[in-house]
Structures are given as C-alpha cells and as structure tokens.
Design brief:
This protein is α+β, with helices and mostly antiparallel strands and about 240 residues long. It is built from 5 helices and 10 strands. It has an 8-stranded mixed beta sheet. Strands 1-2 form a two-stranded parallel sheet. A hairpin with an 8-residue loop joins strand 4 and strand 5. The longest helix is centred in the last third of the chain and has 25 residues.
Length: about 240
C-alpha cells in the first residue's frame, strides 16, 4: 500500500522487526503516503485530558492486567499489550530523550509465550518507568501513575479517569495545601478519535499524530525489553 502511495493506518506494533518498520517508513517517504501507527491509548479521553498538564515526568508505576484471552496467543504480552505503555511513556517523557537502561523479566504461564512481564526502563534524563503487564489476571487493570515536579498524576484507561494531585506552596500547613483536580473528560470513543485523526491528517496534508517513527520507537523499546527477558530466562532455566 505504502509503495503504491496509499495512506495507511497500521495496528500496533508497527511491524514484527525494526527492519520491517524501516522499510515501511522509507516506502511512505518515497511515495508521499501517510503512515500512522495505531497506538489507541493516546486517544483515550483520560490521556487526552491529562496530556496538556504533563510537565516533567520523573517516575512511573504502570499496571496493565487482564484475564487470560482467547486471542493473540501467537504473540507475547510485551508486543500484545505492554507496547501501549511503552509508547505512552516515551511520548510523555519526550521522543528526543534516549533510553539509558532496560531491565526486564517475563515468564510463560499458560501458553508458550511470555504471559506476564515487568520492565524497568531508565531514560537519559533520569526518568524511570516500572511497567507490569499480564494477561493471566483475575481482573482488568489499566492504570498509570506518575510523579512530576509539584504534582502526582493518576490515569485509568478503563474508567477514563484522570487526576492531578498537587501542593500549594503558599498554604499555611502542608495538609491544607493538598489539592486533587479531577480532570474533565470529553468521552469520545478512542477508536473513532484515532480514525478521525488519521483522516484529518490526510485531508489537511499534516503529519499523523502517531507517526511511523513513533511506532518504530515503541517497537525498538519492546524489542529491548524482550531481549532482556530472554537473557533473564536463561538464568531461570525456562529455555
């Protein structure tokens, strides 16, 4: 499609390998076709409300857990669901901030792929993200919490909830200065918002909100996490 100049919205992950992603990006540039990666959580109303309030995230605690699915068993939990949060963290920290270190563990539990994983990602600017993803939980959890200068953010993709807790430095007492701001949500279906944004970029001749390069960046981080999981698995005698 891209080589033929057809505008393309591709589901995450953008590809299975970085080489494939590079070929897609190059094909889009050569033909002039729009290439957008479908990172759906960027269009979740809670994230849309929170994003303008993000300043300098320093530490993330993220949990994405779901009951065992009847689909996607041909892919591990990192490429299936953790990649949502890998993309979001890089987007919030800044696309120009490089990854300094990755540590990860993952185990197959009920399939022959990694069903549960945890990754600790440190960026060059010192920001740290601790991400847990599992598809063998007893409940569905889609929560992100992070700390930034002067505030604490809570984001729940499932309930479309976002809040900021901050402290007024001029308060007479610290406990009197705590303020919790529940952000107003424009409850638009994320998939509809994503497709509309893709169509708008075509009609207006603008860059898609989630570019091919964004998709490649998330894939590169996922590949890095999987490499660390593979290394750790050898010590667990799982291979």
């Amino acid at each position: 499609f891209l080589a033929a100049g057809v505008h393309t919205l591709v589901e995450k992950p953008i590809a299975l390998t970085l080489d494939e992603a590079d070929r897609m990006i190059a094909a889009a540039k050569a033909s002039g076709a729009k290439l957008m990666t479908g990172q759906l959580e960027r269009f979740n109303p809670a994230m849309v409300a929170l994003r303008p309030r993000v300043t300098n995230p320093l530490y993330f605690e993220i949990h994405r857990v779901s009951p065992f699915p009847n689909r996607s068993l041909d892919v591990d939990v990192v490429l299936d669901v953790m990649i949502h949060d890998l993309d979001a963290v890089q987007w919030l920290v800044g696309a120009d901030v490089a990854v300094a270190d990755i540590r990860a563990v993952g185990i197959p539990v009920v399939s022959d792929k990694v069903d549960a994983a945890n990754a600790r990602i440190e960026f060059e600017n010192g920001a740290v993200a601790n991400i847990t993803a599992s598809r063998i939980g007893t409940e569905k959890i889609r929560k992100t919490r992070f700390y930034q200068t002067n505030s604490y953010a809570v984001l729940d993709y499932g309930t479309k909830f976002a809040s900021l807790t901050s402290l007024n430095p001029d308060a007479a007492h610290p406990l009197l200065g705590i303020s919790i701001d529940r952000l107003a949500i424009n409850d638009v279906e994320p998939l509809r918002a994503e497709i509309t944004a893709f169509l708008d970029s075509i009609e207006n001749g603008t860059e898609p909100p989630v570019t091919g390069e964004d998709g490649r960046r998330a894939l590169a981080l996922a590949v890095g996490v999987l490499e660390k999981i593979e290394s750790h698995a050898s010590r667990l005698s799982l291979k």
